[in-house]
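worker-03 picked up job from queue 'complexes'. Input manifest follows; two sequence lines, order preserved.
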Amino acid sequence: MKATGVIVEYNPFHYGHIYHLEQAKKVSGADVVIAAMSGNFLQRGEPALVSKWARTEMALNGGIDLVFELPYAFAVQKADTFANGAVSLLSAAGCSSICFGSESGDIEGFYDTYRFLNQHDEKYKAAIHAFLQQGNSYPKALSLAFASLEPDKHLIDLTKPNNILGFQYVTAAQKQQASLKMATIKRKNADYHDEQFTSSPIASATSIRKALFSRTNEGSAIQSYVPDDTYRLLTSYQRSFGSFHNWENYWSYIKLLLLQTTAEELKDIYEMEEGLENRFLALAAKAESFSEFMNALKTKRYTWTRLQRALTHILTRTKKTDVKMAEEKVSYLRLLGMTRNGRAYLNRYKKEISLPIIVKRASFDDPLIRLDSKAARIYAMGLPQKYRQKALELEFSQQPLYIEKK
Amino acid sequence: MKATGVIVEYNPFHYGHIYHLEQAKKVSGADVVIAAMSGNFLQRGEPALVSKWARTEMALNGGIDLVFELPYAFAVQKADTFANGAVSLLSAAGCSSICFGSESGDIEGFYDTYRFLNQHDEKYKAAIHAFLQQGNSYPKALSLAFASLEPDKHLIDLTKPNNILGFQYVTAAQKQQASLKMATIKRKNADYHDEQFTSSPIASATSIRKALFSRTNEGSAIQSYVPDDTYRLLTSYQRSFGSFHNWENYWSYIKLLLLQTTAEELKDIYEMEEGLENRFLALAAKAESFSEFMNALKTKRYTWTRLQRALTHILTRTKKTDVKMAEEKVSYLRLLGMTRNGRAYLNRYKKEISLPIIVKRASFDDPLIRLDSKAARIYAMGLPQKYRQKALELEFSQQPLYIEKK
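worker-03 finished. Artifact:
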């Protein structure tokens, strides 16, 4: 059996993802699709709309055979660390390829870009440094520095979000010397950050979340933009746990934490750098909502994503010293769910998988997974009080989901 | 003009307090009554039912001429430090006497007890130590140690809560060598901790709060047990700010803080001692409400009050190092309110008052008052979101209340 890997968040799972999975199977010729999926908090520094279990169920119904959780220390991270964790996870799970979506769709372009940047390494780094000094955000400095090298037309456009991530996957695979074939699929229609629905049935996750959080419509507005299964799982989650998870639900906590913490203590938090802590403290005292706070906080120097990640780390009190472990590869594979096909794959190859496969959270311990459990406890605090305990218990007692089909 | 001092919390102001003030004026022969009043959080480690401003208004309407705020570092404290702060405040404000309510009502008994314990100091301390070692709470050990000295009958009963506090006031005045005459008034009817209303109109503050927080009655049940003015101010506060302040309102914050903090960090918090931090962490993860948490937390070794104070310090992140300043006397007098009579007193004696009198919070800085402002910000977080900013602004912009009458 041949396995291909995908790196996902499914926040929520939509038609674009179905297309990605169909293409991944076709391109890789694999029998099994394995997902490295972020848990409770995501790369853009926000709580996942619904639990890892609901999203695992969407994944299994949508075409994934095995879902492993990308630990918090890798998931809520800059693109390079995120990629490093995800690629090491899929490599450890025995994937022979990784298929990612990108605006480019041309894998040779990624490799050429990788080589090109390696050749111009010193000049590239100097240019990044210079653009950062000019007050640009890190992603902006990267893209300006890249442009300043006057790349050939056939190199990929490193201003596009999915190209950037894909480039980091390719880089991670090269650096890890993983025997992984990288493949990319050109994304259809919706841009990553699109906030509006288009006429295409492939809506971006961003536009779906935006519709879910708007006051005027209560979920039904998204019905035609997501697969029936996603719609069913979203509404069922909202019914069972009283609410989706939204940054606004955590705003009071953030505000309290910033009211009671000193700048000195805040400096220890991961991704709090360069005087950002004073800005956070001054603005939190005045802001009355998360969106008001973020709008006040935003500067040219820091991306929205970067600021949201810092807030996630404040919420979970994740310190710089806590994420040192993310400099390494993943150290276990936490199984969240499998299809019959996925189970067959595991049974056949488990002896060749060198990392422990975690089926029961309670019977395993590791600094990485402890951070995940802390994140799960805090994630549950975004629900109305009476649903929190139920949500939390799932982290410790839920067996991996199993789905018969396929 | 002659001033007498009282040490109060008025949570809320009730008929027992009116009696106390009438008696205080009679016994002291004073023209002016000055209150040292706790701010947002109280000696028993709980948020005040309503703001310091609403309670100041009750105080002024009820017979107090000048209200000064006892800073947080002294207010949320063990009886001895609390007493030390309050006595130093009233002494600095120029009081020639302090009148406190007690179960005993006999001031000579307090002085005799003070001398008696000084004479038996070594034996007393050894006995306290021994009773603490047996797992008793500190107040219990004090009272057992006292009994073990076989005191004369005319000494005061140091198992009664108001006698204990009064004894600390007398002790503080002696130690500070304050030229203050101490006087005590026998409390009428209601015991400090009474939870039930009795037939007497003098209900305890505890029973009034209990009635206010019960689900079945919405305030009107207390109408006949509190002065009209208290009733008016309580209902007006609830209308203007959406809620009274109750520990349950802060439970989610406490839970989040305990979920994200390590035992090591918790140890730095004031009044967290002797492995208490591990107990806090373990029980918080399971508890679903403040009362559930407190009931699980309670042991013979720690009084409810002591545990609540530790939780208040967790909520405000008040560290052991932050309250070092409470080893000294108060360093300023923050004026919360005055009557015409109180203003006349201030105008006449302000040159003789050596401490700065703070009228505008915003134009004064001091580590003690910074702690009060932090407490005020966090106190406001116990209100529904839309009322918080309004509540908080009062801390910084509210002028001392002024009342014409008298």
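worker-03 released lock.
Residues 247-318 of chain B form one domain.
The mean pLDDT of chain B is 91.
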